[in-house]
Amino acid sequence: MVSDAAIASVVALVVTASFPFYLYGAWIIIEAETVTWDVLTHHLKFIVTGLLLTTVPAVVWMIPRFERQFGGLAAVHAFLGLQAYAMLILALTGIVRIFQVKRAHDLYGTPNPGMDISELHENMDSWRWRLRAGVAGYIVFWQLTWVLGMARFLILHTDYF
């Protein structure tokens, strides 16, 4: 049977590998002069890959072992991870509404780079704020969770501590 340390090492590598997908997905949107449907779907391929690389190990490996490893670091690690997903939900409440309005105005099919999307709906600025705050919060909490997770990995599965 494969040892817990070996599986934990693979999980640590997989979760760590998700971060470049987030960065590249963000870079796609930042660099795009106009967010067309092709740009959006290209961006989402990387973001969804990053989310899968983070979420699947959490659900399959980390959560089932949480109770056995319960302690101060585990509780803080879980709390920070939950905060990251809460921020992701905040971002989704903004992006879903932005997507609906832009889709209704056919801005993904025939983009108008000169159009101010704030004029498309009275709540657009609020939704854009939710999106930005949620994404920034997710990344901050993801990084805090990752640092603490790596510390827990070193403590639990190596001889360094």
UniProtKB/TrEMBL annotation:
Residues 4-157 form the DUF7321 domain. It comes from the Archaea. Keywords: Membrane, Transmembrane, Transmembrane helix. The chain crosses the membrane at residues 6-30, 42-63, 75-99, 135-155. This is DUF7321 domain-containing protein. It comes from Haladaptatus pallidirubidus.
